[in-house]
Design brief:
The protein has helices at 17-24, 42-52, 67-78, 100-108, 130-146, 162-167, 179-190, 214-232; strands spanning 4-10, 30-35, 56-60, 85-88, 113-117, 124-126, 158-161, 195-199, 201-203. The protein is an alpha/beta fold and 236 residues long. The chain has a single domain (4-232), classed as Spore Coat Polysaccharide Biosynthesis Protein SpsA, Chain A, CATH 3.90.550.
């Protein structure tokens, strides 16, 4: 039987973490909470939840460095075990826990990377304003035209076969924000892995604050042509 671990990065998610763990409880997956020394006490909540549930564990990091470094630390921790699938997921319920089995099933059926996609038929967003819709859709079109045939390259709801993360050079991935999602998918495609987009409905968070910033956006804009140049010059 296939096994799966969800990497769940947290920074100031005390309002969401316990609810998320409860929502994931019926799914039969393990969860690794990766906390970046949240000042709101999220790490302490994670420790309590791990003490109460054998399928929850916690990786404490000393400081906030961005989404990419948190995930890479989590991947390295998970790959020490024998899990078949490794998932990425937000803790703020923008990703529906009920979609986790669908992503795992896509990999069971042959995908190497199953990507929860807002921009394929059946996917979408909810509770977004016009500006956010335009920025997100524009970023996806920009990435698709310049880099790779993926409709939702910035999506962060993913399921990897462990072989993908063992093959991709994680040491070379230095993107910090949502550019990390673009880069990891692109590196997987460059290695010949099969990426499948699974339609999801993305909902805006209702509790806590978004981590999006101008710097994160600009990093993604610059990263796309940089990755293309690296591929063209044989450095990727």
């Amino acid at each position: 039987m296939s096994t799966a671990v969800i990497c769940l990065p947290t920074y100031n998610e005390r309002e969401n973490l316990e609810r998320m763990i409860e929502a994931l409880a019926p799914l039969g997956v393990r969860v690794l909470v990766i906390d970046d020394n949240s000042p709101d006490g999220t790490g302490e909540i994670a420790d309590r939840l791990a003490a109460e549930r054998e399928w929850v564990s916690v990786l404490h990091r000393p400081r906030k460095e961005g989404l990419g470094p948190a995930y890479i630390a989590g991947f390295r921790e998970v790959l020490r075990g024998d899990t078949d699938f490794v998932l990425e997921m937000d803790c703020d319920f923008s990703h529906d826990p009920a979609d986790v089995p669908r992503l795992i099933a896509a990999c069971d059926e042959g995908a190497d990377l199953a990507l929860g996609s807002r921009y394929v038929p059946g996917g979408g967003t909810e509770d977004w304003g016009l500006l956010r819709r335009l920025v997100s859709r524009g970023a996806s079109i920009y990435t698709r035209l310049l880099l790779m045939p993926v409709h939702d390259a910035t999506g962060g709801f993913k399921c990897f076969r462990r072989e993908v993360l063992e093959t991709v050079n994680l040491d070379a991935v230095d993107a910090k924000g949502y550019a990390f999602q673009i880069e990891l998918t692109y590196r997987a495609l460059r290695k010949g892995f099969r990426v499948v987009e699974v339609p999801i409905l993305f909902r805006d968070r209702t509790k806590g604050r978004s981590k999006m910033s101008r710097g994160i956006f600009l990093e993604a804009v610059a990263r796309v042509p940089a990755l293309r140049f690296a591929a063209l010059t044989g450095r990727l």
